[in-house]
Design a protein that fits this description.
The chain is an alpha/beta fold. Strands 1, 2, 3, 4, 5, 6, 7, 8, 9 and 10 form a ten-stranded mixed sheet that branches. Strand 2, helix 2 and strand 3 form a beta-alpha-beta unit. About 40% of the residues are buried.
Length: about 190
């Protein structure tokens, strides 16, 4: 499997650090170009490589770490998403329920990437915790994984585990999203699995 992160802001940078920490090779891209990520790439050694968005789209698993509305521009950058796994690591801050049309945000993302399978994860922790080692108090910080495709969810859960987190599969997007919505951010970011 090949991995790429699209977005090098707080969440994308935090994920790049986790990939580097666990020696899992990945590409990272943004719309500003490789030079804008020089410091981050230098920090991650040779594990994380700066690339163009077009290069990043060639990965088997693509992590969206961009502001929610920017997913549409990423989706427009390719015409065929067949066989790709898109990890939705975005949150919908500032997005109204009307803008989502009554759908779960990941279902909106799935509609933008026809042929791809969408998995929701990496979005429950603030970037500062996402960047930290996942091992804590003798356990590992929990990371929830939700998808309408059980095989894709299991594949992404393996990546989550390779990055040091304790993956917990929450079922389909609408089920997992409902559970995440009920939990409260402070509780969800402080779950440790022993």
């Amino acid at each position: 499997m090949t991995y790429s992160i699209i977005g090098s802001g707080n969440v994308g940078s935090a994920l790049a650090r986790q990939f580097a920490r666990h020696a899992v090779a990945a590409g990272i891209a943004n719309t500003q170009g490789a030079d804008s990520m020089a410091a981050l790439v230098a920090e991650t050694g040779d594990t994380v490589t700066a690339m163009t968005v077009q290069e990043a789209l060639k990965a088997d698993i693509i992590i969206l770490a961009v502001p929610f509305r920017a997913h549409a521009a990423v989706a427009a950058a390719a015409s065929d998403w067949t066989g790709k796994i898109i990890i939705d690591a975005m949150n919908t801050y500032g997005i109204t329920p009307e803008e989502l049309g009554g759908l779960a945000s990941s279902d909106v993302v799935a509609a933008a990437f026809p042929g791809a399978t969408v998995v929701k994860t990496f979005n429950q922790l603030p970037a500062r915790l996402l960047a930290m080692p996942a091992a804590e108090h003798g356990g590992r910080r929990v990371m929830f994984v939700s998808s309408n495709d059980a095989t894709a969810a299991a594949t992404v859960a393996s990546l989550v585990e390779a990055l040091g987190f304790a993956p917990i599969l929450l079922g389909k997007i609408n089920e997992g999203g409902a559970l995440l919505g009920m939990g409260g951010a402070l509780i969800l970011q402080n779950l440790i699995k022993h």
